[in-house]
Amino acid sequence: MPTEAVLKVTILGCGGSAGVPRLGGGAGPGDGFGDWGVCDPAEPRNRRLRSAILVEGPEGGRLLVDAGPDLREQLLTAGIGRLDAVVFTHQHADHIMGVDEMRPLNRSIGGVIPAYGTEETLEDVGRRFDYAFLPPTPTFYRPALVALPVPLAGEFTAAGLALRTFEQDHKVMRTLGLRIGGFAYSTDVVELPEKSLATLEGIDTWVVGCFQRDPHPVHANIGRVLEWVERLRPRRTVLTHMGPDMDYAMLREMLPPGIEPAYDGMRLEVPS
């Protein structure tokens, strides 16, 4: 019998905008080695780079979702030397500041990398990295991307994958949610419009942003995610974009079955 086609998803980073630990720290022996909050520094899964994922399709296409300042380290650690496309969920620095690191990937594939996002996001990325959207040079001495705008709610194809987009409320801006078959990715979100929840109906695995335990003005907290999960009932929910309030062992103990914290390097397989 033929095997079921699956998506392979790698959590390249699951931290908030400052990562875990954050720069700084209190007075004492640990001063300067970072602010871990309540996270246990002895637990490797508490060390979190900025949020990004890699999705690999059944036919081998590789789609990067967000390219933050830790991109080089993330791709080297995951053993990824080739990409077919990138999607930017929004234009905050922790999701785009790795654009310059993509130059060796241009050399690896010998071509320009398609870059998807809303028109607003791509315009902002283009202002910050204008040189990355110029015609490519023969030796790719600068990164080479081509901007391909997509709607907040619609469909498009990238890296051989069929994607559906849905709108997310981040309060300070709208962000792009993504659904690929039975998989969905929602980072930097505090509220989901009714139409977006409808798009998420029937998902198998959901990686969703959850910055902390208590309510936050621009990010979902545990209570909000639990409300969404109660409605959508995915088989598996994985929390990402977590801050120093979210200790891995504590979360494993307190979260109900079917909900778990991500960790950098985590690999998921989802029916496509």
What does this structure look like?
Pfam families: Lactamase_B_2 (PF12706). Residues 49-219 form the Metallo-beta-lactamase domain. It comes from Roseomonas acroporae. This is MBL fold metallo-hydrolase. The chain is 20% helix and 27% strand. The chain has helices spanning 71-78, 93-96, 103-109, 119-128, 194-200, 222-232, 248-254, and strands at residues 6-13, 52-56, 62-65, 85-87, 113-117, 145-149, 154-158, 161-169, 174-180, 183-186, 205-209, 236-240, 259-261, 267-271. The protein has a single domain, classed as Metallo-beta-lactamase, Chain A (4-Layer Sandwich), CATH 3.60.15. The strands form two sheets. A seven-stranded mixed sheet has the order 6-5-4-3-2-1-14. A seven-stranded mixed sheet has the order 7-8-9-10-11-12-13. By secondary structure, the chain is an alpha/beta fold. The protein is built from seven helices and 14 strands. The radius of gyration is 18 Å and the shape is globular.
Summarize this entry quickly.
With 272 residues, this protein is an alpha/beta fold. The chain is built from seven helices and 14 strands. Pfam families: Lactamase_B_2.
